[in-house]
Each structure stands twice: as structure tokens, then as C-alpha cells.
Amino acid sequence: MPSNGDAPVTAYDRLASSIRKQILSGELRPGHRLPTELALSTHYQVSRNTAREAIRALAGQGLLVVKRGVAGGTFVASPTTAQVSESLMSGLALLTDSADLSVSVLMEIREMLEVPAAELAARNRTDEELGAIHESLFDPGRIDPTRVFVNNRDFHTGVLRATHNPLLEVLAEPVFRVLKERFLRERASADFWVRVDAEHREIVGYLDDRDQAGAREASRAHLRYLRSVYEKIDRIQG
Amino acid sequence: MPSNGDAPVTAYDRLASSIRKQILSGELRPGHRLPTELALSTHYQVSRNTAREAIRALAGQGLLVVKRGVAGGTFVASPTTAQVSESLMSGLALLTDSADLSVSVLMEIREMLEVPAAELAARNRTDEELGAIHESLFDPGRIDPTRVFVNNRDFHTGVLRATHNPLLEVLAEPVFRVLKERFLRERASADFWVRVDAEHREIVGYLDDRDQAGAREASRAHLRYLRSVYEKIDRIQG
DNA sequence: ATCGATTTGTGCGTATGTATC
DNA sequence: TGATACATACGCACAAATCGA
Description:
Chains A, B: Pfam families: FCD (PF07729), GntR (PF00392). The structure is a homodimer. By secondary structure, chain A is mainly alpha-helical.
């Protein structure tokens, strides 16, 4: 039974914890250059290899970036929102695999985030962002099965981006993607996509008019429909 | 200028990407034991050291856990919600440091998550969870500056836990902690804590009665107050 | 443009921890 | 309980990349 929530017992773990603490406390700020591997290893009385493993672990956490060459070195990372979002996505993916994130739990979060998101997007969208959202709509007469996933995601991302709250994208995207991966791999019918597109178009209409209440309620209805579909799939496939 | 969004060029990076892909595609499921370092290194034609660094990077991402000894090895992780939450927290901490997560953006997310959370908690709380929340209240007559932070956090966590939506804790805790770290390091007055405690008590009253609407609105008012305080601090300290 | 100094990347060998017999 | 086998942890040496003089 693999499980490891222990305190640091290995050398690289101690070193990683030490550096991590300094970063999170603000002692080391983004862009700061750490000592070289040699300097770290001598200072902490470990081999260079051990220091490297600690650095690698923190780089995996997105806290450090490494550049080689004479002007290279190890730097405290300035992560992008996309990187943080990606990291959250992989964490949630594993949680849904191993533990028990039910459809209900995931959809509850989507409702909390995306209903207000639609409202915010109606208020804050630029014309350019609105155009990008329009681009993501399907041609309801001819559903293209190769484009439908990317269109669906583009719509979703477009609305989140139009809120002008970057954190919303960081948090909501992973939840959206995890649900999609879990329930929409193949088994969606054409009818499903036709209805999704129709509801997207309704939401877009409210975004056009900057109708915040309309966008909010249309988004709520859309998510209610998605919940019913996902829960039905969930009952079938376990 | 440190920045690195490159494609994998180093050997350990290639190996890490390869394994990461297998994990996220579901090919390797949580609990699965990977080949030994020696087997990995021979199979991928790299040294054991390189394989180790790839493993370390993925372990940092929370995708792998490593156990030593004869029955040890490298396993696909079964992360806990707390680990995913911690990882998100460090990501958000760096984002607030380097980039620009404004108070408004952070508080907007808190409102989206915590207002519905209070409503859910009023509906789903057990008596035991309610007891834990009561424990977190201050003694408003005697504010203990050493306990006030942990009490405040316990209240917050207690409400999230009482929603019975584990994802809520994963997402909301990091936002809460980042705001706290950034704005409440020292500069909160006793008056502030007295008012916070009073508003907590009001929310708890609604949780006692399972009054969902009451809890929701009290939470909304509480967050509105916090927003005003944080924004004021933000204007002062830049 | 080449050389050289500095830094990380990679390879191999040994030490140590851990479950089993 | 002690030996043993096998896994990861650690240490040293060399290769490769990068940038400036």
C-alpha cells in the first residue's frame, strides 16, 4: 500500500523543504537566483547530486526553473496562470481516479464558478473576446465530431477569459476538463451536441446584450442540463 | 531573464514527460508500481541518475510517490485532497508575488465559493462538524493574538468541511490562505478581530438553525466587509 | 569567431534502508 | 533474530551547453 505523508527523512527532501519554505515565506522572491548546485551542496553538506534532486522536486512543483550554461542557474519561478491551472488539473485527475470526486461534487463547483462567470462575462467582455466566443459555436446542422470537443472547450475558455478574472480560468478549467475526460470520451450523441450548441447560443445572446441576469440564468440552466447528462452516464458506467 | 516554457530538451525531461503522459492518460493508474530505476534507465537508454531526476520531478508534481527498501519502488500517487490543495496554494502564492492577482480578483473568487459554501454547510452539516466550528470562535472579550489566526482558519476550514464537498476545501482554502498571508501578517487591529468574530457568530447562528438563506447572506456580508478591509490595506501598502 | 570559464546534464559506483526467509 | 536480497539514497567524475571576452 503506497502512501507517504511523512516528514522529510531523506537528504534531498530536507533540502527541498528548506528551500520551499524560504520561497513560500517570501524570503526568496520570483526571479531570484539560487546558489549554484555546487554551492548548495557544500553549504548543506550533501553531494551535488542530492542538491540536484531537491531542485528537481521543486521544479516539478513549479517553484523553480533551471537554465544551463554560464549565465544559467536555478531561479525562483514566475509561473503563468496556465501552468498553475495545468498542475491543478493533473491533481484533480488523480483525485477522480483514486478517490471519490462524484459527479455531484464536481458539478456543484462548476455551478459555483461558471454561473457567476457568465454574469461577469456579460459585464466585462470586450468585443474581441465576444468574437472569440462566437467562433467557438458549432454549425448545428453539421456537427463535426473532430471539432466538437475543441469548440466546446473554446467556448468555455472564452467565457472564463471574458470575465477578466484570471483566477477563474485557473480554477474552473481543471474542473471542466476533468469532467470532460471522465464522461465525454466517446459516448455523447449528436443530439447532445446539438442541444449544447443551442444553449451556448442562448448564453452568447445574453453576452451580446451585456445582459448579466440573462447570462447567469442561461448558464445555470445549461449546467443543470449537463449535470443530468453526466449523472445518467455515471449511473450507467459506474 | 529566467523563463522556460520550452519543449523537453534534456533527457530527464523527456523521460518525465513520457511517464507523465502515461499517468494522465490513465494508462498508469494510482497505485501502479513503475519499473525500478535500473529497469527504467536501461529501457530508456539513460543513466540511473537521469531516471531518478525524472522520477523526482514527477514526485514533486504529486504524480509519484517513492518508497525505499526491498518492497519499495516508485508508485503512481493517490494524492489526498490536502496535498492537491497545498500544491495549489504554493502556485497561487507565486502568482500573487510575481504577477498581478489583485485583491478584487481574489475576493471575487472567495465570494463565488464561500457564499454558496455557507449555504451548503447550513444544509449538510453534522452536529459534530458544527461543534468544531463553535470551537473556532474567539472569546470576543479577550482576543488572544497567538490564537486568532488559527481560530480564524479553523472557522473557515470548518465551514468548508461541513459542506461535504471536498473539492470546495481544495479550491477555497488556497485562496483564503494566500489572502491571509498577503494582507494579515501583522497589521490587523483588535477591532478588526472583534468584528470578524461577531460576523462568524452570526453565520454560526444560521448554521445552528440550518437556515440556508440566512447563512448565505451573512457570509456575503462578511466577505463584503473583508473586501473593504483588504482593499484599504492594499491601497496603503501598494 | 574562438577560446575559456562557469553552470547544469549525465554516467557509474557505493552506502543505506527495508521486508522477507 | 540475523542474514540476505533488492530497492532507493548518496557521492564523485566527466560531458555538454552557454555566454562573454
